[in-house]
Design a protein that fits this description.
By secondary structure, the protein is α+β, with helices and mostly antiparallel strands. Helix content is about 30%, strand content about 25%. The protein contains four helices and seven strands; from the N terminus they run αβαββββαβαβ. About 10% of the residues have low confidence.
Length: about 130
């Protein structure tokens, strides 16, 4: 049963990616959610900065929180957002919270569009948060 579910997810990702690349010139995609570094963000924790994004759903609090994208994850089998810090995949929010100092964050970018997250494969199928530090 698990093999069938994995195959179904992979086929769906492939079809979505194929459809997005074929229709990219005719549809206008929503811009990526981006936050630049500012003085107001210097003393704000990573979880509180992520709460500002309307498309993110946060379960729990602190380092044990789980981050999901609204609309991508299914209700029965939610898929956490993949965190990438300075180009390196770190995994879920718990790992990202330990890997980055919130005061060093220069930019946060949330990738939601299927064409943007397709390059991260099944690991990024729940959405991707790119964090750039100084």
């Amino acid at each position: 049963m698990k093999k069938r579910n994995i195959l179904l997810v992979l086929m769906t990702l492939f079809l979505v990616t194929l459809g997005c690349s074929a229709s990219k010139s005719t549809t206008s995609e929503k811009p990526k959610a981006v936050e630049e570094k500012s003085q107001a963000n210097l003393n704000v924790s990573l979880i509180d900065r992520l709460r500002r994004y309307s498309g993110l759903s946060i379960r729990g609090d602190g380092e044990n929180a789980q981050i999901f994208l609204r609309g991508i994850s299914s209700i029965n089998n939610p898929k956490e957002v993949l965190f990438i810090i300075n180009g390196s995949q770190v995994g879920n929010f718990s790992r990202a919270a330990f890997s980055v100092n919130p005061q060093e964050i220069k930019r946060i970018e949330v990738l939601k569009n299927p064409s943007d997250i397709a390059s991260y494969g099944i690991v990024g199928s729940g959405g991707v948060v790119l964090i750039t530090t100084e």
